[in-house]
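Writing this down once: the sequence line spells out the residues, with the fold written below as integer tokens. This is how one looks:
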Amino acid sequence: MCDTPQTSSSSGIVTPSMVEPAGFKVYKPPESTRGYPLGELPDSYFAPTAVDLKAAQNALTGRTQALVNAPLQLRATREALEKAKRDRWPNTTIRIRFSDQTQLEKVFLSSDKIRSVYAFVRSSLRDDVKPIKFVLYQAPPKRDLKVSDPKVRDLTLAELQLAPSSVLLLRFEDDALNRSDVPAPLLSTVAAQATELPKPLTSTSEETVVTPKPESTGSSEKKKIPRWFKAGLKHILEK
């Protein structure tokens, strides 16, 4: 079931939030995908590879080990470790990728919960789309981040392993909005701020500056002999 947090009005009727988002970035779909329907992703796309399974297993092992060792740690030690994590990654950058490859980006506190991300996305949608439920997820491997899941809603973004940055995909309950040839249903004020997706930085090789050697004149200068050497040589020859 898809999850979308909602707010209650003074009349008691649950309605989508009407507050427009702030402090965000919008990126247009890459040039290579514009005008070309991408088609629906097959189920095989979400099938984890051997590398994905190994990474997931390592992450699971790490979390399990942390839970096993947690009772053995002093409270002060646990608090120190948590503080170290917060100090290292106080913020988490989340990018929401729509079916047409439009991306919506915002920086959250790493201590925020996933409901903050849902609220931001919902506030960015057109008014006619706000009531439609949606779910945020990661892939591959596929991992739904539902607000209704207590294992998700009660954890911070850092505890969900989303810090320092993550890309989340969005799936609407209405499949018509999940087509790759349907533009992201964003507010006009939000879509108007869309810019080109930054290209990855490429390292440029530095030119090596070669210092030219002085040209040879072809004539060798006579080496000067110190006076003390001349005097010593003359003394030896006179003997």
The beta strands are 7-8, 14-15, 24-27, 91-97, 103-109, 134-138, 143-145, 165-172, 194-195. DSSP finds six helices and nine strands in the chain. The helical segments are 50-69, 75-88, 114-124, 150-153, 188-191, 227-238. The CA atoms of residues 124 and 190 lie 7 Å apart.
